[in-house]
Amino acid sequence: MRIVLLGPPGAGKGTQAQRIVEKFGILHLSTGEMLRTAVQKETDIGHKMNKFMAEGRLVPDELIIAAVNERILQPDAEPGFVLDGFPRTISQAVTLNDLLNKEAVELDHVVELRADDEILLERILTRAQEARDRGHAVRADDNRETLKVRLEAYTEQTAPLIEYYRSKGVLRSVDGLQPIDAVTRDVFRAIGKPT
Ligand code: AMP
Asked: How far apart are the CA of 14 and the centre of ligand 1, in A?
């Protein structure tokens, strides 16, 4: 099973991807996590990417596409994967499509988690504050100013993917503002595996 989760920052892609992975044992591929790991390693490329991430902008396609392509071709991705945070531009989606075509496989489902910008902003800021109160680390880009840029990047660069995948007939939309378990129920229905 090959799934893409689409949705703005804070819509719950990571949480829902985790639940799909627990249930179906497929690979969870979060490009945000991949990039944060690269940044922590303090490589040259990590420094370059950190600049974009800290500002809330997307890292250039060429940096991310090569990394994702390589990962998808690993043997542990063969039974399937959930992509969380990729593709985020039409160019990334087209490259992914070409790669899968070459491997004679295709995406089974693209699930869009819908959520309203204002609510997302408050949701992420509350979550960051709660983490801070518990003494946990908070993502550097989970602040009001950077979040605005991340939401703009979503609207301008990623939201066009909704039409792209709708025209391919693989898009399903789920209300991401419901309680987490209700979102999971709808996501599982959307991928044809009702709980
Ligand atoms: P996320 O954890 O998915 O919210 O991603 C955090 C940050 O990583 C984003 O704001 C971007 O700067 C970068 N990023 C993650 N995935 C991608 C992608 N597919 N294309 C470009 N930049 C990405």
From this structure: 12
Which residues does ligand 1 sit against, CB inside 6 Å? 9, 31-32, 35, 52-53, 56-59, 64, 85-86, 88, 92, 141, 150
How far is ligand 1, taken at its centre, from the CA of residue 190, in Å?
Answer: 24
Question: Which tokens go with 26?
Answer: 């497929």
Q: CA-CA distance, 136 to 195, in Å (whole number)?
A: 33
Structure tokens at 8: 């703005």
Q: Which of 70, 69, 53 is nearest to 147 (CA)?
A: 53
Report mean pLDDT in 10-residue bins for the chain, 195 residues: 96 96 96 92 87 96 91 93 98 96 95 93 91 92 93 97 97 96 98 87
CA–CA separation, 164 vs 156, rounded Å? 14
| 117 CA from centroid of ligand 1 (Å) | 17
- Please give the CATH number for the structural domain made up of 2-190: 3.40.50.300
- Please name the amino acid found at residue 110: V
Q: How far is the CA of 87 from the centre of ligand 1 (A)?
A: 10
**Nearest ligand 1 atom to alpha carbon 52:** 12
